[in-house]
Amino acid sequence: MRTERRRNESAFLHWKTEDLVFGGKDWKLLKGKDLIKDLKSELSGNFERTILAMMKTPVMFDAYEIKEAIKGVGTDENCLIEILASRSNQHIQELNRVYKAEFKKTLEEAIKSDTSGHFQRLLISLSQGNRDESTTVDMSLVQKDVQELYAAGENRLGTDESKFNAILCARSRAHLRAVFSEYQRMCNRDIESSICREMSGDLEKGMLAVVKCLKNTPAFFAERLQKAMKGAGTKDRTLIRIMVSRSEVDLLDIRAEYKRMYGRSLYADITGDTSGDYRKILLKLCGGND
Q1: Is the pLDDT of residue 24 over 50?
Q2: What does R_g of the chain's alpha carbons equal in angstroms?
Q3: DSSP label of 202
Q4: Within a 13 Å sphere around the CA of 80, how many CA atoms are in the beta-carbon half?
Q5: Which of 26, 49, 29 is CA-nearest to residue 39?
Q6: Whole-angstrom Cα distance, residue 116 to residue 169?
Q7: Sequence-ordered list of residues with C-beta below 8 angstroms from that of 123, at least 6 positions apart, any chain
Q8: pLDDT at 19
Q9: Other CB atoms within 10 Å distance of the CB of residue 146
Q10: For residue 83, is pLDDT > 60?
């Protein structure tokens, strides 16, 4: 049985990667069978998880990853942060629709049921998909926001987390990049250092992820990938999620940032940290060795 399953797994690797990304519904219409069910019966382990992830649309995949992150005992806060901090307005708005259709509760309800405090408020703000998308920068507003961020953190006893939330989750990317530059100039400290000094735990990780995605999204994912493969044991769920979700978005840029940041190719690190058909499908997604 194991030999037969192994043969079936290897057969899937003869398909082009793009051939795997099609709807199970279409297969069912053509072949009279449910492809997802067939895949689950023929594949196993991380190779199975990768193939099943590739079968979903990007939004559907995110919806199921969030559902998995909050079900049962314990929450995968890093998964929630990664998805909600990095996706576009349009993607998040569609994610809200799909989540409600699939799981009969809103994304906001799901977040509220499994998180609390300022971290919950941050995730709810990100889950609205309402970030300003303008590309113009008003320097008077930039300076106002810098002063308000400084007053909410470094220049007071305690931290006004709601002010950080309001500015970092609503302002445009262009505006916030100007804010970060001006903040460093005026305060002689980058915004990430201030967040680390003023916050802790999941809120700190969430705020830092927002800033990193606004500054350089591929670098954010390069760091996530490196941490997933660093040390003893591989965080395979994170590795699969990033490789699949970014494969047709910015994986070439992530590869370049990975090489710049760590002096090694992503391809080489995947090769050294995985094995078998699971390794082969990840390397196919990776696309090449820098």
Answers
A1: no
A2: 21
A3: H
A4: 30
A5: 49
A6: 18
A7: 80, 81, 84, 111, 115, 206
A8: 53
A9: 22
A10: yes
